[in-house]
Automatic annotation (TrEMBL):
Molecular functions (GO terms): 4 iron, 4 sulfur cluster binding; catalytic activity; metal ion binding
Biological process according to GO: base-excision repair
Domain (HhH-GPD) ranges: 35-186
Protein name per UniProt: HhH-GPD domain-containing protein
InterPro entries named among the record's database cross-references: DNA_glycosylase, HhH-GPD_domain, HhH_base_excis_C
Organism phylogeny: Archaea, Methanobacteriati, Thermoplasmatota, Thermoplasmata, Thermoplasmatales
């Protein structure tokens, strides 16, 4: 059974193509992937807009930026001193080795370059690979693990590898991740808001809750 294609189709009927990641360039995707760590996307948008206003929304510009100036510019993203240092280090390394992100074309090269860089964890790396470099990887995050477990009973194993084995199209991989994040923000939160969720009739968690509530009601 092509379970992840089923998940995609279920979500697509609700959300369609979300056209995620919102960015004006590949550079902005990389910048956003670092800025979004430990903060909301709304805060990242504020920081990126400030970067645009100062002409600092490229890796080339950031590589030449003063740490204090960059930190102040990206202040809305939180942890701004740390993120400024990491963005500058990443940008300098990338510009020195490749001259720009457009020179990175294959997965092996990208992984070998980005993985050792401080502050580039697996989720950030996968976001860059998928959304900036258009490479067929799946972004596995806390939203995905929670949603797939609750709604479809998918847990354990290597979900990331399984998704990549089933779904090869880059645009579908992008949109699957985006849709999972969206429904996680709308309904499948840490404390789920199942009422009104468009997938609650398919959801294993919701079904269990309803059966449990019905059982308790019958006992009363």
């Amino acid at each position: 059974m092509r379970i992840y294609s089923t998940v995609y189709d279920d979500l697509f009927r609700v959300y369609g193509d979300l056209h995620w990641w919102p960015a004006d360039s590949k550079d902005e995707v990389v910048i956003g992937a670092v800025l979004t760590q430990n903060t909301s996307w709304k805060n990242v948008e504020k920081a990126i807009e400030r970067l645009r206003e100062k002409g600092l929304n490229s890796l080339a510009a950031i590589s030449k930026c003063d740490v204090k100036d960059l930190a102040e510019t990206i202040r809305p993203s939180g942890f701004y001193n740390q993120k400024a240092e990491r963005l500058i280090a990443l940008s300098k390394a990338l510009m020195e080795r490749f001259g720009g992100i457009d020179s990175i074309h294959d997965l092996e090269t990208a992984v070998s370059f980005f993985s050792p860089i401080k502050g580039i964890g697996q989720e950030t790396l996968d976001s860059i690979l998928l959304y900036a470099l258009d490479l067929p990887v799946f972004v596995m995050d806390k939203y995905t693990a929670r949603f797939l477990d609750r709604c479809y009973g998918i847990r354990g194993g290597d979900i990331k590898k399984d998704v990549e084995g089933e779904i090869k199209d880059v645009e579908r991989l992008k949109n699957l991740h985006a849709m999972i994040v969206q429904i996680s923000k709308d309904h499948c939160k840490k404390v789920p808001e199942c009422d009104g969720c468009p997938l609650n009739t398919k959801c294993e968690y919701y079904g269990r809750e309803r059966r449990q509530n019905a059982f308790l009601h019958d006992k009363d």
